[in-house]
Amino acid sequence: MRTQVGIIGAGPAGLLLSHLLHLQGIDSIILESRSREEIEGTIRAGVLEQGTVDLLNATGVGDRMMKEGHFHHGIELQFNGKRHRIDMHELTGGKKITVYAQHEVIKDLVAARLEAGAKIYFNVKDVSLHQIETSTPKIRFLPENGTDAEELNCDFIAGCDGFHGPSRQAIPTNLRVEKQKIYPYGWLGILAKTPTVNPELIYSNHERGFALISTRSPEIQRHYIQVDPKNDIADWSDDRIWSELHARVDMDGWSMLDGPIIQKNIVSMRSFVCETMRYGNLFLAGDAAHIVPPTGAKGLNLAAADIQVLARGLGEYYHSGEDDILTRYAEICLRRIWKAQRFSYWMTTMLHRNVEHSPFEYNIQLAELDYVTSSQAAAASLAENYVGLPMEIKSNYSIKI
After folding, report:
1. Which residues are catalytically annotated?
2. What is the β-pairing status of strands 5-8 and 28-31?
């Protein structure tokens, strides 16, 4: 098989890249190790920056998001038994966030790609990358129900296959520049059948640990509590989870709404960056290149930002023969990535209770929260980062829609 851009991974990054390339008349083929049902059915939260929402709307895949998404103009920070609202809409000149689950974004993109006749190979196995340092890179894979490996020849490979995928591993270890921080916190997340608890997200710093009150739909809510990442989810009964949520977010005159828990799991938290985002004609994007703790709500948005840069660079290459953006791909992306890592690290360390901290360090946390909620300049900084920093791609080429 032959295509211009071979894409590994049908998550938001891979699908969005294929969509943006299609709009520019550039051919691509997507290889995905899971089934369509699995990628569309794996429930993941999604807080979309203003720029991500604008991109999906501008490229024709935002209709359902605008009908079913929840638009939030602010967030609430809770500490010392009180809540303080950060009015992001006012502080950023009218920007907001949209709560729309990641798997819903995937559904919209898959539908758009298949309607356009795109080639997406689901349930592939044994994906491997070859000759990526040359002008003729190849991807070998075993197709669904196949017994013989197939080969996809392409001009470029986009590794959009997540942290555990084969793309990053194809870069020689001695040439990969990777930086990582493991946090001593875990998030126990639940999906619960209850009405909406609060019109906006609540981030709570409590002496028992962090809690986040979020929204999934009018009937199903998504909530999180800080736990030890080594905890076994089997030790957390529904009653225990609700008890902790009540302890961490209830206030005088306001209490959590209980209901049946339909899903629960514990995830660990890390910050990770592979600064070698290009090797030969392989480009890494999304979780293949970086992981952020979920506190700052940046994961999907960083993937979309990477893809905007890569799609524009490939468009510039194919339509004008220039490779300036592709050459600067890592440089452009890493500026935004490290700012998002800084923000996510700051939100995480400000809001989570570290059992190794002294009373002095805990009071520093509370002082930071007090400053953020009492200083307009500090609140504006939080708001600016939360709704999304502007894209910085210095080029005369723009994606033709």
Report:
1. 72, 203, 294, 298, 386
2. parallel
